[in-house]
DNA sequence: AATAATTTCGG
DNA sequence: CGAAATTAT
């Protein structure tokens, strides 16, 4: 027996901050060799992009939770910042490790980094092993009959259904043999991931608890209380009826295969179950698109939109970000985002439609704002969804599908509970006018102590006028080659 | 995962 | 004549 058997291996954590259903960890344990858990803080210049402010907060707490889980098993999560290849090289040199294991990531810059690392390590005679698990299926696996990537969601969903059940998750190991802590390990606080404006994220923890245990509890509560009726209830932002899994999925604190597994065999209407699974499939579709069209985060998927004349009104953009547009459902959504690092899905569509169609501001500015302020910021879902609303994406809503913020409010926030929660200056307004204070008689406004233009803004654009303007601008590009 | 305008339906 | 269905954007 050679002493190779005792050589440690590096388990490189990335967007898989979990012990459950972690195929790299599972494989590492099976080798019987000491494991060195490592998280590398890669510089944004490496191409992985700047870490959004809200997600930095979430990453801090998720890493703290993973550290605690690993410590409970007798190990340490080593934290090292720097270029990933340099860090891995240094750790290998220091520890004598000859193997690196990780779970694959699917954002194009991440893929490029990993491909290079794998090649370099193998050239040095080292072993680099990557595993699946961030998605239900590898993005290259599902193909149309013609062998091309899917461009339309429904056939993609059918293919996903027809691809057989996703792999069963593997449980977290009960025992792990760890290698020694690295001398180079840094402290989490030294990374300064928490926002420097302490008042910004102060309310995030009203809604978000980091870590695997919290994710599993939240999932269990959702499946127990909200899956029955999910298909219709999910559209009402004042109801607690969506799964809230996206922040956990974004950093891999829970795996999609685990979520899928937990939905098996439940006694709920098939419609509700399928609809929830279809939301997981939208995430898969987004990654499928990003994988096959790496420019998704910044280039119009449909390049006919390259000639679209966007507005560059900074005043309008700022009013949108602050939730001061004068349309209550839009403002409530933008303020929920600022307060909790999250926004209900229905409202995301409404505010995105408002930015793109009513303000005619480039979807990329909205995408960037969401990337910075969403705890669940995800390169695939965020980019694909903005392009979807803009009408320039794959299987997108046609551009002329323009949300009316008043009607959307009245339809999905009938009693105004959502608006009243996040736009407190309108809380006392008569329900009849809660989504259109600008149409309320003076006496009604007086009664609610609202002075339009002072305590709450007048609409920054007239929706009907803005709608016509957007349709005209669209007509100018729609017949272009 | 839409809305507004227009036409048809039912009384 | 208002509601529901259809159609254009």
From TrEMBL:
Pfam families for the chain: DNA_photolyase (PF00875), FAD_binding_7 (PF03441)
Query: Binding of FAD: at which residues?
Result: 230, 242-246, 276, 376-378
**Segments crossing the lipid bilayer:** none
Please give the catalytic activity noted in the UniProt record. Answer: cyclobutadipyrimidine (in DNA) = 2 pyrimidine residues (in DNA)
Instruction: Tell me the superkingdom of the source.
Output: Bacteria
- For this entry, list what GO says about its biological process: photoreactive repair; response to light stimulus
Q: How is the cofactor bound?
A: Binds 1 FAD per subunit.
Enumerate the residues marked as the site Electron transfer via tryptophanyl radical: 310, 363, 386
Q: Which InterPro entries match?
A: Crypto/Photolyase_FAD-like_sf, Crypto/Photolyase_N_sf, Cryptochr/Photolyase_FAD-bd, Cryptochrome/DNA_photolyase_1, DNA_photolyase_1_CS_C, DNA_photolyase_N, Rossmann-like_a/b/a_fold
Photolyase/cryptochrome alpha/beta domain spans which residues? Answer: 7-136
Q: What is its EC number?
A: 4.1.99.3
Q: Which GO terms describe its molecular function?
A: deoxyribodipyrimidine photo-lyase activity; DNA binding; FAD binding
Q: Which UniProt keywords apply?
A: Chromophore, FAD, Flavoprotein, Lyase
Cofactor(s), names only, from the UniProt record: FAD; (6R)-5,10-methylene-5,6,7,8-tetrahydrofolate
The family annotation for this protein states: Belongs to the DNA photolyase family.
Name of protein: Deoxyribodipyrimidine photo-lyase
The source organism is Rhizobium metallidurans
């Amino acid at each position: 027996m050679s002493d190779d058997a005792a050589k440690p291996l590096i388990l490189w954590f990335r967007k898989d901050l979990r012990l459950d259903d972690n195929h790299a960890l599972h494989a590492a344990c099976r080798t019987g060799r000491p494991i060195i858990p490592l998280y590398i803080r890669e510089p944004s210049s490496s191409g992985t992009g700047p870490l959004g402010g809200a997600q930095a907060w979430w990453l801090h707490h998720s890493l703290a939770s993973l550290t605690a889980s690993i410590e409970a098993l007798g190990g340490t999560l080593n934290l090292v910042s720097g270029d990933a290849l340099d860090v891995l090289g240094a750790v290998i040199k220091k520890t004598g490790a000859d193997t690196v294991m990780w779970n694959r990531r699917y954002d194009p810059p991440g893929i490029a980094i990993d491909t290079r690392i794998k090649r370099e390590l193998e050239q040095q005679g080292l072993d680099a092993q990557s595993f699946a698990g961030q998605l239900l299926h590898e993005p290259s696996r599902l193909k149309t009959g013609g062998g091309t990537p899917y461009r339309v969601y429904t056939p993609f969903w059918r293919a996903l259904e027809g691809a057989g059940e996703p792999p069963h998750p593997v449980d977290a190991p009960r025992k792990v043999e760890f290698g020694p802590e690295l001398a180079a390990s840094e402290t989490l606080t030294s990374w300064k991931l928490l926002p420097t404006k302490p008042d910004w994220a102060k309310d995030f923890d009203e809604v978000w608890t980091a870590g695997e245990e919290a994710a599993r509890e939240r999932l269990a509560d959702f499946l127990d209380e909200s899956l029955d009726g999910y298909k219709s209830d999910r559209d009402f932002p004042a109801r607690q009826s969506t799964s809230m899994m996206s922040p956990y999925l974004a950093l891999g604190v829970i795996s999609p295969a685990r979520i899928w597994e937990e939905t098996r065999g439940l006694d709920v209407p098939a419609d509700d179950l399928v609809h929830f699974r279809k939301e997981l499939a939208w995430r898969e579709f987004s990654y499928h698109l990003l994988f096959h069209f790496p420019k998704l985060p910044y280039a119009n998927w449909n390049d006919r939109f390259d000639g679209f004349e966007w507005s560059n009104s900074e005043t309008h953009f700022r009013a949108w970000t602050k939730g001061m547009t004068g349309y209550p459902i839009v403002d409530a959504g933008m303020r929920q985002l600022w307060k909790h690092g999250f926004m209900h899905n229905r409202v995301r569509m409404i505010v995105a439609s408002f930015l793109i169609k009513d303000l005619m501001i480039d979807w990329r500015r909205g995408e960037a704002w969401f990337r910075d302020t969403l705890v669940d910021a995800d390169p695939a879902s965020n980019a694909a969804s903005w392009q979807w609303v803009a009408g320039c994406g794959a299987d997108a809503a046609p551009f002329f599908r323009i949300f009316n913020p008043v009607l959307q409010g009245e339809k999905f926030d009938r009693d105004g509970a959502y608006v009243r929660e996040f736009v407190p200056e309108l809380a006392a307004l008569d329900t009849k006018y809660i989504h259109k204070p600008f149409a309320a008689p003076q006496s009604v406004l007086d009664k609610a102590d609202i002075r339009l233009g002072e305590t709450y803004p007048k609409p920054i654009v007239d929706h009907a006028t803005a709608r016509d303007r957007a349709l005209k601008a669209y007509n100018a590009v729609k017949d272009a080659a």
